[in-house]
Structures are given as structure tokens and as C-alpha cells.
Amino acid sequence: MLVVLLLFPLVLLLVDLLTPPGIRLGPVMVAAPVFSAAFLGPAGVLLVILVTTPCVVLAAAANLQLGATNFPFQFGAFVLLSLAALAASDVRLRRERELANSRWVAQVTQRILLRPLPRRAGTFTLASLYRAADEEAAIGGDLYASVERRGSIRVLLGDAQGKGLAALEMANSVLNSFRRAARHHSRLDVLVAELEVEFGEDMRDCAATRAEAGDIHGKHLDESFVTAVILDAADSGSRISVINLGHPPPLLVNRGTVTTLEPTDPMPPIGLAHLNGQDLQVQTLDFPSGATILLYTDGVIEARDAAGVFYPLADRMRSWTHLTPDDLLAAVHEDLWRYVGTRFADDVAMVAIRRTDPPVATRHGEVGTAHHSDASPHSAHFVDTVTRDDGGAHSAS
User: Fold this and answer.
1) What's the pLDDT score for residue 373?
2) Does an H or E element contain 127, and which?
3) If you ran DSSP here, which 8-state letter would residue 287 be given?
4) What is the pTM of this model?
5) Which of 300, 337, 368, 392 could form an SS bridge with 359, CB 3.0 to 4.6 Å?
């Protein structure tokens, strides 16, 4: 662009010199510094102005306009537009730097909140995908995490109420509480009760802080909630424990069929436990080898096409029952993008978990490379999920 904009006034000057005086191209040369403000930095704009200025004077001389009464006004307008282009370029460059810094902060926040999910954990293969509705934000209120315990894995996927900073605070609270509680409590109902207590305390503290600061939007954080699905799967056996806290039901893909895992006893979301008149119910389901469970947020099933029809996730899944977790998430995301035809109205998050065959023993006391741990039985390795900015599925060991 710099070369083009530098050649532009030179070419106009050449044409002006080769044509009769009646054809005057000098006033057109002002387009060079004006356009340069949109593409070049201040130094580039200044260089274009320095090249264009003598071209304007030479064109006026060739057309016998230097002594004309109107030329000083034309040249003054050229100078003013050039200075405005220089200032506009400086403002644009500073805004671009601010945007780049904001994106960097969003990426760092994403890495802190959503840590890498292992490709392989015991007898399970995992994959994740996250796509924020606000592409500039890179992260929203959807959340997921996993904690690998010796002999089992626990996975959380949730969706915080609302959007913006309040949703991010809720997501952060639930993620931190889950990471701590998942390794200390052997029962899911006790784990969820711990999440409820810590979430309530965090939100009351945030609401009090914002109320003191006069932030009207943050005064009711103590009334917020997060829908979630939490599952606990052991390496051995073919069963899985699930608690659904007001979240869309997971899908089980097994032997070419897709089954919706509806909760037998629906529970309220995290933050609304006081509405529950019964004890937490843990649902135990079959999860055989070779089967895949898909966890997702409502941003998937509430996406609409041009006619306003919701995305039929379960029906579409029947065409992808043979895919690996990574390929499955990629297929859903690509199909969802085509179905919507425009930007997503809500955040989209998915986690796919497949039970595979146990690791093969190589020697006595050793296991294959799929999973190996020398930690104590009471230790846990923390792993969570991160997503690419381009929305593609990604997981890392």
C-alpha cells in the first residue's frame, strides 16, 4: 500500500504533464494522504504527504495555476486534509494497539480459567471445544473442567447466567471450587454441596463489593446461578455417575445410536439449592467401552437457522456416531456454523468423552503409554480445557 500510494501522485503528475492545461489532476492528488490514513502508520502517511506536496505544486505550475487567486485556498485545503490524515492514522494505530492488548488479556484469562484437557486420561479419550459469541472477548460464561483421580476422572461442564464480567466471575468461582472439591470428596452429592456453599459465599462477597462501588449491575450477584453437569467415571467397569443441575442433558453415542440422558430427578442450578426440597440425587448410567458422551451448553441446541428453527443436535449426531471425540466436536461445530449462517447468538461449549479399552500391560507392574501415574491413591492431577480462538476443537495432554 505504501508503494501504491507513493506512485499515485507521481502517476497523476505524469499524466497532467502530458495532457493539455485544461485537464487539471492536481486537486485529485489529495486522495493519496487521505487513503493512507486507513492503511499506513503516521510515518507512512508523512512520507506520502512529502511526496504528494511537490507533485501538487508542479501540477499547478504545469497548468499555469500558481498565480491563480484560487490556488492558495486549494493548497490550504490540501494541507488541512493531510494533517487530518496524519492525526487519523495516529488515532487508528493507538486503537489497534489497545485492541491487541485487550485480545491478549482475554487469551491470558482463557488460559488461566480453562486449562488444557488431556487427550487421554486412564481409559478415557477426551476432547473439548469453546466458541465465544463475542469473538473479540474470546471467553464468556461457559465453563468446563476435569480432575483426574487415580482410577477415575471427574468432568464438569456448565453455563453461567448472563454475560459479561458477572458471568465471568461466576464461572471463575465454580471452576476454582470444583478443582478443590473434586479431589477431596469421594461422593458427587457432597462435592455439589461444597460447590453450592462456596459459590454462594463468593457471589455475596462480589455483590457487596460492587454495591459499595455503586455498580447497579453487580448488586444482585448473590441471586445468580450456574447450570452444570458433573460426571464421575471410573477406569474399570461400565457405569458412570451423573448429577444434572438444571443443564441440557448429555447425549450418549453407542453402537450407532444416540440416547438423551435425561435426569430422573431434576436438580436446580448451582446457586439455587434453596429451591430444592429433596436431597441431591446421583444418577448411575451405563457407559460401555467404545461409547461416547457429549456434554454441551444451551448455545448449541438454542442456535437457530434463518427460519427460527432450533438446531437438532441429537438428530445430526446420528450421522457422526463413528467419529472420534475430536472429529465429533469438529463436525458439530462446522455443521452448527453452516446451520446458523451467521455469528452465534450465545457461547458454545462442548466436551466429548469416550471410554476406550484399558491400557495394555507391557511388563509386570507397568502399563502402556496411554496412562501412567506414580502418584499416591489420594493424589489428583488437575486438568481443564482450553480452546482456540478460531473455535476449533483442541485438547492437549
Assistant:
1) 35
2) strand 124-131
3) -
4) 0.68
5) 368
